[in-house]
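ok so i was messing around last nite and threw this chain in just to see what happens. nothing serious, just curious
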Amino acid sequence: MESVMKPIRIMKNGREEEDGGEPLSPMSRLFHKPDSNFYIIAMLGFAAPISPDVVKLHIARTFPKHPRFSSLQVVDEKNGGELRWVKTEVNIDNHVIIPKLDPNMDSPDKFVEDYVSNLSKTTISMSIPLWDFHVLEVKTSEAEATAVLRVHHSIGDGISLMSLLLSCSRQVSDPESLPTIPTARKSNGSKKNNESLLGFLRFLLIKLGLLVLLCWNTAVDVVMFVLTYLFLNDTANPLKAQRLGPSARRFVHTTLSFDDVKLVKNAMAATVNDVLVGVTQAALSRYLNRKYGIEDGDTGRGKGRGKNNLPKNIRFRATCFVNMRPFSGIQTFEEMIKKGSKAKWGNYIAYLLFPFTIALRDNPLDYVRDAKLNSDRKKASLEAKCIYFMARLLLKFYPTMTCGFPTQTSICYSNVPGPQEQISFCGYPLAFIAPSCCGQPNALFVHIVSYVNKIKIILAVDETIIPDPYQLCDDFQISLKLIKDATL
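result:
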């Protein structure tokens, strides 16, 4: 697989096109670095048989209307070779691929999985806008047909693409209505009057203490990030890539019950994300314990079952992606492309280093408690904003820098909210939405997306490091069940 896409120069009448267009943002340029050539790959499972020609017509009427989906990324030699967006005509046949398939193939699930995996081994030519849409008219165990959207991450982040998806969709229960967009509730926080000087002083002391805590946490996190970028590696473990550079990925996914997650959330006064991080920690701990046991000659059967094989004080961190927009959740597509809008389209994301607890717990609820403790501490820190500012500053003044995302962490982790009710895309109801990424140096990328009353766990794995991703999927299922049972 190519590790770097070579930008082209648009020529017109034998000369380079003078109208350079808008330059790529620093964060978008970051996704063209040699060790972070990211593509977003989103799988859409249809709950009913489809007509590929109807899907193609719908895509032709919607996607090319978006400025980023109808623009090339070209080199501007006059400005140090920076990339710029240049408007172009879209030939839909270059972007919508409908392969002829045998509807009676022996293993359709394996075929679709292999097809999507093969997309991670190739790149899209920069002579066209960097996206394509594959329609696979074959029935699998989860869907009547599958579509795969592949988009270079420089076009936009997960929040942007989810906004685009929802703008092209309608509610199944009400075909005239757009999907309900999940947004974070803002605290009304009615201001209380301090009736006494003592109350006012107490209020000031609390605010001062929170400010000191914020400054301290931010300073510690930024220093740790810099040290990590320079030399501070995670403990070597079976999930951590042993080499730099992107490689082919296999995408597998499993489904959890959103109702079970909310049950744990309400019982522990936590957030949905706290529960999901706790489940992830529990699943990774189970998987790693089994792997370390095999290395020690214990297959996990018989006498060795239940044995703690994990090293003590293992340093295991995730590179977590954070939405930097002033609004949480998903905004409407029209709002994101509106000029001057705060809910902007593009790559308004940063990342932070999130410590994962890798250990065998007697009480499964401790995984959620650990996740909540670390999450609350990260909320009382400006780590993500500082890293976002530092990245933009470095890429602005040193655009030729080759550094990308930190490779010293063990995994990548991302959580994107999805539609709250079943939706139809191109007129056909969707059974599931499963977005992921390829191009990252980490051997494991865990994506989590909600859809109606389900939560999809999507794993993008380097098979040379993780040859048994379905076992890890089972660990997620078992971990949620154990945590739920402990809650009850």
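not much to say yet. Residues 197-230 form the longest helix (34 residues).
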